[in-house]
């Protein structure tokens, strides 16, 4: 797959699953703008109507009033059918026609208007046109009740589609965007309640226990625990300490805290996540693009086939009756409307994006939901993806010294360095080293540290440092796989400390699950020394591992895999691994919470640091694809069957209504099912 093909998407046109369609303000709103989504011209049922402004205040009232015409039409239809059934004498002629025409126009007026306006713009073959000619034809041959029923159930189906889309969007937005509308700002020592959008960078805000954080900020209070479920999908409390970053959407669990605001309301990590989820609907999967193209060809074909059904039998049938064959053609038209496909398929993908969001996984488009199901090779970075990315002391060996004093001496010297290995030793030792006096500290590049601790010369570093100062030690020590710190005190070898990065708790289970899912090749790439990389690969049962790699070497390895015809997913931290994430068929960023680079570079952002989410992402992609193809099979199967029945005069308008609206209804129910699944 060409890289440009993957990323150079068409201009976003909005999520193409709303319809007229039958109300003044159909479909969900574009967040923050209040504009209505319109299909943008690709769907079989597109309109070119300009979006209208709608305020939140009028939304509920409008939603109620938009159903009134359908309710009125249903009452009149049922009344007319009842009067026909009981053969009421006065219900005939113009009275009967008037009742059914009012019922028809209540729901069909806007549909006919959309058909005319689209016709004038050259967009002839759409669902408005199909429904218009089918129902007007039914009226022409005197089937008033059936004409009203077709239009009424079509409109009800449209309302249901809109409600399903709106609910799907709302559930995702409510899940993620739980920021409060009021925030307490401390200005000149006075607490003031203001809208979060009015808070400036550098302002100090106060968050009480149980309150949601409205803005990204830096902790000024010593510590507090937070529920990060809205951002990570995990409800396990996360402790933040002074100086650490707290993000909008987190819930403060412990006590009153103070935060220094580091990002505006629209620039917070949460706002970027919300924007990404919204934009995901504009990046379409191949299945969606195929159905859209198919509908454009399919719709005019069935219109001409319907014409053929109505007119061609004249030349071949002895007792040809125009109205009978016209009725069959009208049934054929109603069945042929491809709404079930055009509506339920994008809704299925959007449901998959919503399900992923609930699990702390953000897909940047439905195309990546499809692509992730084709992956046969998973390539992972080691540090921060499969390991914690935090060095910890593993083993301490001393040469005739008491371990506590040995550690305190080494930690005292290492406390003068900012290297992660030095920090690990200091953290492991505790505060005992602070009793020691350190002087004449020197960092020798590529070797280690030299200095005096309590007047004694101390060396701490690698084998090169020992050789440089002629310190003899057991050569077998060099065979140790882990990162090792050799120590000499007073010119003599005093012992060593091994340091290692801990494997994440769920990493072994992740590798096992991926193998069970049919991922044939799992590869680990790392800049760490090869012996350490191979040791971790053996522990985790990873198929291939390469160590000592620079960023460009990782790119080369992924290119080699792609040249072998493999579909590659790469999982990294989204910053150091940006070139490889971009190159892979699907790039996933681990721990992307609050990381601009991760959100920008990756196709899929895993907001937690759990590698098990990789398998979850693939599972959601597979389940989404399964539901989409179930809908395609259902729609094609039922429509094909009823189309054949309609052409031979077996099916009536009532069966046609089921084949169109009923199938769309079932497909939508199936599509939203994924949002209730547990992964």
Structural commentary:
By secondary structure, the chain is an alpha+beta fold. Among the domains are: about 185-215 and about 215-260, Distorted Sandwich (Calcium-transporting ATPase, cytoplasmic transduction domain A), CATH 2.70.150; about 390-505, Calcium-transporting ATPase, cytoplasmic domain N (3-Layer(aba) Sandwich), CATH 3.40.1110.10. About 50% of the residues lie in helices and about 15% in strands. The strands form 4 sheets. It has a 7-stranded mixed beta sheet with strand order 10-22-21-20-11-18-19, with helices on both faces. Strands 2-1-3-9-4-7 form a 6-stranded antiparallel beta sheet, with no helix packed on it. The chain has a 6-stranded antiparallel beta sheet with strand order 12-17-16-15-14-13. β18 (about 520-525), α18 and β19 (about 545) form a beta-alpha-beta unit. α4 (about 95-120) crosses α6 (about 145-175), α6 packs parallel to α12 (about 340-360) and α11 runs parallel beside α23 (about 655-670). The radius of gyration is 33 Å and the shape is elongated. Mean pLDDT is about 80; it is low at about 1-65.
């Amino acid at each position: 797959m060409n890289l440009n093909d993957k990323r150079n998407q068409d201009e976003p046109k909005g999520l193409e699953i709303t319809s007229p369609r039958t109300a003044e303000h159909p479909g969900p709103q574009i967040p923050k703008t209040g504009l209505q989504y319109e299909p943008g011209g690709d769907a079989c049922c597109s309109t070119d109507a300009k979006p209208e402004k709608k305020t939140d205040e009028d939304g509920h009232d409008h939603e109620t009033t938009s159903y009134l015409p359908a309710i009125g039409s249903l009452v009149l239809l049922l009344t007319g059918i009842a009067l026909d059934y009981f053969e009421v004498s006065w219900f005939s002629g113009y009275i009967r026609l008037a009742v059914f025409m009012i019922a028809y126009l209540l729901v069909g007026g806007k549909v006919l208007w959309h058909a005319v306006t689209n016709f004038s713009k050259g967009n002839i073959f759409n669902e408005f046109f199909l429904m218009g000619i089918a129902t007007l034809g039914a009226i022409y041959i005197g089937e008033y009740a059936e004409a009203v029923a077709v239009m009424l159930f079509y409109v009800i189906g449209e309302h249901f589609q809109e409600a399903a889309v709106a609910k799907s969007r709302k559930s995702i937005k409510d899940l993620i965007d739980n920021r409060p509308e009021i925030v307490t700002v401390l200005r000149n020592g006075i607490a003031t309640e203001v809208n979060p959008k009015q808070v400036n960078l550098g302002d100090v805000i106060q968050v009480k226990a149980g309150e949601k954080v409205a803005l990204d900020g830096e902790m000024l209070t010593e510590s507090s625990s937070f529920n990060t479920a809205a951002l990570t999908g995990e409800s396990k409390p996360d402790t933040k300490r002074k100086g650490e970053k707290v993000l909008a959407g987190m819930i403060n669990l412990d006590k009153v805290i103070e935060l220094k605001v580091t990002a505006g309301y629209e620039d917070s990590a949460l706002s970027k996540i919300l924007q990404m989820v919204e934009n995901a609907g504009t990046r379409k999967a191949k299945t969606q693009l195929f159905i859209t193209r198919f509908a454009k060809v399919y719709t005019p074909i069935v219109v001409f086939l319907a014409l053929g059904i109505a007119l061609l039998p004249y030349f071949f049938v002895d007792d040809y009756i125009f109205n009978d064959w016209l009725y069959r053609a009208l049934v054929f038209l109603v069945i042929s409307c491809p709404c079930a496909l055009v509506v339920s398929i994008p809704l299925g993908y959007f449901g998959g994006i919503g399900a992923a969001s609930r699990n702390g996984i953000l897909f940047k488009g439905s195309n990546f939901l499809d692509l992730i199901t084709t992956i046969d090779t998973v390539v992972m970075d080691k540090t921060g993806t499969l390991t914690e990315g935090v060095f910890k002391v593993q083993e301490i060996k001393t040469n005739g010294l008491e371990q506590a004093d040995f550690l305190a001496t080494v930690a005292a010297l290492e406390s003068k360095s900012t290297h992660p290995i030095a920090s690990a030793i200091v953290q492991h030792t505790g505060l005992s080293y602070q009793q020691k006096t350190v002087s004449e500290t020197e960092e020798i590049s590529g070797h280690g540290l030299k200095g005096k601790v309590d007047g004694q010369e101390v060396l701490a570093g690698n084998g090169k440092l020992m050789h440089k100062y002629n310190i003899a030690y057991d050569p077998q020590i060099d065979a140790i796989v882990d990162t090792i710190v050799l120590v000499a005190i007073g010119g003599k070898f005093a012992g060593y400390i091994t340091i290692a990065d801990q494997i994440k708790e769920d990493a072994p289970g992740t590798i096992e699950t991926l193998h069970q899912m049919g991922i044939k090749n799992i590869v680990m790439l790392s800049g760490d020394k090869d012996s350490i990389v191979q040791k971790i690969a053996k522990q985790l049962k990873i198929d291939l591992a390469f160590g000592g790699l620079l960023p460009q070497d990782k790119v080369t390895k992924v290119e080699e895999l792609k040249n072998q015809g493999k579909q590659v997913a790469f999982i990294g931290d989204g910053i150091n691994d940006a070139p490889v994430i971009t190159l892979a068929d699907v790039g996933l960023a681990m721990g992307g919470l609050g990381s601009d680079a991760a959100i920008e570079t990756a196709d899929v952002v895993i907001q937690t640091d759990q590698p098990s989410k990789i398998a979850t992402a693939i599972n959601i992609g597979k389940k989404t694809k399964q539901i989409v193809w179930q809908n395609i099979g259902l729609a094609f199967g039922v429509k094909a069957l009823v189309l054949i029945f309609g052409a031979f005069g077996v099916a009536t308008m009532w069966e046609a209504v089921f084949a169109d609206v009923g199938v769309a209804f079932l497909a939508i129910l199936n599509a939203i099912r994924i949002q209730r699944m547990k992964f």
